[in-house]
Amino acid sequence: GAGVSQSPRYKVTKRGQDVALRCDPISGHVSLYWYRQALGQGPEFLTYFNYEAQQDKSGLPNDRFSAERPEGSISTLTIQRTEQRDSAMYRCASSLTGVETQYFGPGTRLLVL
Amino acid sequence: GNSVTQMEGPVTLSEEAFLTINCTYTATGYPSLFWYVQYPGEGLQLLLKATKADDKGSNKGFEATYRKETTSFHLEKGSVQVSDSAVYFCALRSYNTNAGKSTFGDGTTLTVKP
Fold first, then answer.
1. Could you give the 3-state DSSP secondary structure of residue B70?
2. Given B43, B49, B104, which is nearest A42 (Cβ)?
């Protein structure tokens, strides 16, 4: 596609449920990034991949959060046993390489009730 | 660690006014600096960037100069328009420590009134 796409755009879930957020990067982009953005704040790094390899997961807040990119293209961010504090906008970005400009998707707004 | 501090908003200006949004940073190594813009209902878009000291990034009438001596990257525009109303984020990437992640400021909301 022309840009980074994310699905779903909005997700409402109940506390304790698992959610999976999907990111489809720009075709051919090697690097893929996940960020979380709370209301009124800037995006905060979660994790990133080069191809299928997870290079840095230092931003994942706890072990309920995990991410994968098994074929080096689409990535899934999974949050297990969601909590209300997980409510935020989750943003994905991709870049041609690890040092090129990051292009952001529209984000998935997650609301945990 | 890396950090970015932006001037707090919201900022409200009249059309054709001069805009400055301050941004200062703390980083290890030699970061690249960015301004992103988020228009209402849309995602983050890269507005401009500068990759080394004294570089000036520019786009759509906006400019920012990479000042290593003051660790700043202030965003300026000489004459704002209503269509510039958006949230502006300053960000950095420090490639020699971690090529992947960007560090963002908290954003400054700009409203331009006719």
1. coil
2. B104
